[in-house]
Amino acid sequence: MYTKKSPTRGSCSGHLIQLLMTFILALWVSAVHAEMKIVGGVLQEADGTPFVMRGVNVAHAWYRDKTAQSLTDISARGANTARIVLANGVKWTQTDEREVRTLIEQCKAAKLIAVLEVHDTTGYGEQAGMATLDQAANYWVGIKNALIGQEDYVIVNLGNEPVGNGQPSSVWIDGHKNAIAKLRAAGIRNTLMVDAPSWGQDWEGVMRTNAASVFAADPLRNTVFSVHMYAVYPTDSEVNSYLSTFVSAKLPLVVGEFGDTFQGQTVAASAIMSRARQYGIGYLGWSWSGNSGADAALDLAINFNGNNLSTWGQLLFNDTNGITATARRATIFGGGSTTTPAACTLTLDTSGDWGTSQVLRLTIANTGTAPITGWTVGFNESQDFSIQSSWSATFAQSGRSVSVTPAEWTRTIQAGSSVEAGMQISYSGGRPVPGNVVVGGAQCGVVIR
Asked: Which end of the chain has the least Cβ crowding within 10 Å, N or C?
């Protein structure tokens, strides 16, 4: 005998199955869509490890047949990032979605984080025939399927040097706010990079003054700023003044382009690398090869030959603060330094605990024979907490995650010496205990007390 199923029972069962499927799908999406993020002004990988860019610009849009080998050669010298010139079709032949997908895979194969940039916006408002930021945004939305799902591998640089000299500040401010809104509305969650105006050098201070409002306009708060340092930055004083402003404001910054000279004028390249290392700021040298005329001296590799570095190339890669000595691979590619890191012991001491508050003391002892410079620490707490104060380092909190960057006086640890920093936290419920500890800049044994 056929018995009709109860509508109420059948509906409830179907609803439960639907909820279960939705939950499983949500877990799957969160797993496959890991993404880089900004925490306390620091760019972090999906696992909470701070990521400091050390890399090179690659002129793909003009030398498409050279890119694959260039990426291989750049990676072989220890770089962890490649900033790649694309075109949206306004000024140069468009880099289509299929080509972008190939570039991303080539960067993955070379274990390089890809920073993709639209170059057609260069000097808009002063240079004729260039693209607006809105046109650049339309390009990114048009190829979004190549970007979605690549959030842990790809940073989207909205437009290269998108405003020329002497333009209204609103062109840069509103142009970026609108572009960010358009990309986020289209479902693009990648970390975004915003270039400074005034041909990237921000000598008029528009980005420095308005970066906070542009950052706040990103609903994901996942935007990093990029200054290009050429002739406007001839001495350490100019370099330090600019970089330290962003560090103090806890706004994420990279030096997206720089050279050791610019059309015969001095650029403080050594100071840029030294200060960037001091502050934990990324840098990307311009450019691997293919420059001509007055800019020919900016080639890092002569005639695209990875075994024949120019004077500028030797400085960028082989200086004490250069790429080979300071770069660390992204953890998604296996992490680790490109050189043998210094040895140390990291102690996280939580013994100063009073039930609702705790003092965590962080001590790094250099047990090696070489100085440790520019260390970082990241960890997760087991319970909810709130940072009340800190000393001798910056402790940035995001949920239960903490990222630590040293103060100027604790960033260098001489062999046989140690430094201490710490934070005071408050909490309710269970006592917070640190775990999942990651150390950058040194190979440390970890002790938790």
From this structure: N
